[in-house]
Design goal:
Layout lengths: L1 E3 L8 E5 L6 E14 L5 E13 L4 H7 L1 H39 L5 H23 L3 H8 L2
Antiparallel strand pairs: 1-4, 2-3, 3-4
Helix pairs in contact: 2-3
């Protein structure tokens, strides 16, 4: 995801140990640095940044730098899949909230007219669900989730 940064690591990788753990670290990958004029008139430095939690070991920095593109893509896919899972769970919860009306309609306790709004909401949620499943970038996913 493109975010504002203060500095770009020399080889695009920054590792920080996770507090309270001697074995786990957070590896951040920085790619496609850009400098633009900010809204306040100052220069703004941005980059595509993804991160992945890993087991720390001697030589990890060199490993990540030498295989940067592969690790960057792996981190991007993991981040995308995690965000997709959150978005899909949210949509599923919204569908669950309308299940009762579906059952009432199926049992004949709710007329077609009374059910029409719920039916439309559920149809829109199912479209949104399918679009989330198809999303290939965090930016696309964000647009879908906020629509």
């Amino acid at each position: 995801m493109r975010i504002g940064i203060t500095t770009m690591p020399p080889r695009g990788v920054a590792i920080s140990l996770i507090s309270g753990s001697n074995e786990r670290c957070l590896a951040r990958f920085f790619k496609d640095q850009e400098t633009n004029d900010g809204a306040d008139g100052n220069l703004q430095l941005t980059a595509n940044v993804v991160e992945i939690e890993m087991i720390f070991y001697d030589g990890l920095q060199e490993e990540l730098e030498s295989n940067f593109d592969g690790y960057f893509e792996k981190a991007r896919v993991l981040e995308l899949n995690a965000e997709k899972a959150k978005a899909l769970a949210s949509i599923e919860n919204e569908l669950i909230k309308t299940d009762y009306k579906c059952w009432k309609h199926a049992d004949g306790d709710l007329s077609d007219e009374e059910y029409s709004t719920t039916k439309e909401i559920r149809a829109n949620l199912r479209v949104k669900y399918r679009n989330v499943e198809k999303a290939e970038t965090l930016e696309t996913l964000s647009k879908i989730a906020n629509a």
